[in-house]
Structures are given as structure tokens and as C-alpha cells.
Amino acid sequence: MRQVFEQKFNALPAIWIKAPGRVNLIGEHTDYNGGFALPMAIDRHVVLALRPRNDRRVTIYSLEFDSTLEFSLDAPAKRNTGWDAYVQGLAWALNCDGYDLHGWDGVVWGDLPMGAGLSSSAALEMAVARAFSAVGGFAWEPAAMARAGQRTENEWVGVDCGIMDQLVCAGGVSGHALLIDCRALTFDPVPMPANTAVVILDTGTRRGLVDSAYNERRQQCESAVHYFKVDALRDVTAEMLGDPSGELDQVVRQRARHVVTENARTLEAAAALEAQDARAFGGLMRASHRSLRDDFEVSSAALDHMAVCASKIPGCYGARMTGGGFGGCAVALVAVGALDTFTSQVTQCYRDATGKTPELFVCRPSQGAHVVM
Ligand code: GLA
Question: How many domains does the chain have?
């Protein structure tokens, strides 16, 4: 990256930034319901090398796409496709929030697979936000930056996502998962159990029609909110759900039940981590998968195979689909001593079931977007 930077800009980069991808351990489809999520930032990153400029222009070259984006901070141009939309959208969002932005030249690259459900777009957004904070001299506030990232997705790119991805990419703590309260926008680091590893299991399938299905789930959650006359599904209790009187649509009831039970599981899972109880945590991961499969109906045959294959291998505490669903990755918590047999057996089992070879990433809980010293 340094060589490319020198070639492009005839200078050396002055600031290096790393922003991680993420994997969600539990708490799925809860963020846009004002609930709880428990993701961790991973040791796969978007890396940004940059040098401040004296004007209000940004030039950024993407090594992966071999393409350059140049724009004025006074007039970011709206496009809703491609990597450059996240960069310009973030500048737009920070402008709207009144941050004092200064220009820079940068080169961006990453070892985070794109489109695999590991939040490469949130990582890019938070890398760019970190760059503006470093160059403009304003304080790095993860929740505010995450909100700007979410606004970029919602209003600039046109993806109706929640806040989880950006918040953990911004605020991740090394060695810890983050218990996020998506209503208060607060997060607490929770230590990962000793002698365990988090393994991301990429099914190799990609989510088709995901936006329409995601939006449909959001609407169904909205219907449940109207029915129960609450602010968000966060406020619905198991007793309210269990009340057989009333005319709640069966599918909407199922969707709400997932969110209500998933919120409870997420809080229990955080307590299990605090207690270093990997076994209890694994049981909650399995229950989460069943709820996503049966009640929220966002799993897929490939994700189900992967979760079943992983869960039955000795040394695996639990596994589940992770992220929005319909394809992408599962995640497993595995005893460090069992990692070798786990990786070979899960590969074989998934291959036997689907004919596909999965890609596995053993990953460490990592720090959120930061300036590399
Ligand atoms: C996607 C969205 C997140 C969240 C998850 C589901 O990853 O970007 O905001 O809603 O789906 O938990």
C-alpha cells in the first residue's frame, strides 16, 4: 500500500487506519427492534493509508477495484452502487451532522471478503469516518460515527439496515464481544471465554433477494409493534405474546416471538460469557438458530446444514447462522484444543451434504476502527 501511495501521490502516507469486519455471535434481527445484539469485531480489516490535504477534496484509490474516486466535500455526488457510495455517503452524513471535515488523499485495501456477510461495507464506512476524525481533529465517538454509517446505508445507499454492524466496527474491544443495547446505543465489552475460538463458516452461498426479504421482516415487526401498541418489539413480553385472545396474524406472531426470545437469549448469552460458561453460551446459539429457522424464517438449507454439521462435532459448543440470513456465513464457538479436528470434520460434513467446500475463518475478537500507531 505504501508503494502504491507513493506512486499515486508522490508522498508517503502520514496516517494508517484499520477498521474491522464483524461477526454476530447472537442477537439477530433485534437491532431494528430496539433490542440487544452481541457481535464482535474480527481480525479481518479494511485498511486505509492517507495524507491530509489543505483543501476540501478527497481522493481515494481502491486497490481491490483498481479505481479512483475524487470528490469535493462541498458536493459529494449521490450514487447508490459501488464502494465509492459508502465513502461519499459517509462524508455527506458527517456534513449533515455538522462535523468540520478536511480533505485527504488515501489508498484503501482490505483482507475482509466482500459480500460474505462480514460487514465489509460497515468496515469501509468506519475506516472513512476514522479518517475524517483523524484529519479534522474531532473526537472519535463510536455511537455517533455508527449513526452516520447507518444513515449512509439508509438514506444514501438505500439499504434499510439497523445499527449493529457499524456500532461494533466502530467500538469493538480486543478480546471481547460487545453487548449492544440498540435502543440506548450503548455497548459493554464482554470477555470471550478462555480457550475458545470463534470460527466463521462461509457456506459459499450468497443471499439472493435479500433486501426484499429483509424489508418484509422489518414490516412484519412493525405490524406487531402496532398490534401490541408499543414503541418497539423490545417492549413486548413473553406474557403479551402468549395471550391467545386478539387477532394477531400467525406469521407476525412468529416473527415477534423470535425477537422477544432472541432478546432474552442475548442477555443470557452475555451473562454466560461473563461467567466464562462456553457450554451455556453454545446452547443459546443453537436455540437462536432454531428460532431464526422456524419463527423468523431467514435461514437456508445451506445454513441449516452448516449449523447441524458444526454442532455435532466434539469440542464445538454451539453454532448458528449469523447476519441477515438466506446465505452467507454461520458462526461456531469451538474449544481451542479441538480446532484441527473441527475444521476438517465440518468441511467434510458440509461437503457431503451439499457438494460444496466451505471457507473457514478462525478469528479473534478485535479492536474497532482505530489509527495504527
Ligand atoms: C444485517 C443488518 C444488521 C442486522 C442484521 C440482522 O446484517 O445490516 O443491521 O439487522 O442483518 O441481525
Answer: 1
CATH code, 152: 3.30.230.10
Residue numbers annotated as active site: 165
Residue nearest to atom 9 of ligand 1 (CA): 162
Distance of CA 76 from the midpoint of ligand 1 (Å): 26
Query: Is 259 part of any domain?
Result: no
Query: Considering the domain boundaries, does residue 85 fall inside one?
Result: yes
Strands (DSSP E) contained in the chain are: 15-26, 36-52, 57-62, 67-72, 104-110, 176-181, 186-191, 196-202, 316-321, 329-335, 359-363, 370-371
Which residue type is seen at 140?
Answer: W
Instruction: Indicate the pTM of the whole model.
Output: 0.96
Pocket test for ligand 1, best of 31, 182, 255 (most atoms within 8 A of CB): 31
Torsion, CA 168, CA 342, CA 289, CA 360, rounded to 10? 50
Q: Is residue 68 part of a domain?
A: yes
**pLDDT per residue of the chain (373 residues) written in tens, 0 to 9:** 999 999 999 999 999 999 999 999 999 999 999 999 999 999 999 999 999 999 999 999 999 999 999 999 998 887 767 899 999 999 999 999 999 999 999 999 999 988 888 999 999 999 999 999 999 989 999 999 999 999 999 999 888 999 999 999 999 999 999 999 999 999 999 999 999 999 999 999 987 655 789 999 999 999 999 999 999 999 999 999 987 777 899 999 999 999 999 999 999 999 999 999 999 999 999 999 999 999 999 999 999 999 999 999 999 999 999 999 999 999 999 999 999 999 999 999 999 999 999 999 999 999 999 999 7
Best of 29, 147, 255 to mutate for ligand 1, by most ligand atoms within 8 A of CB? 29
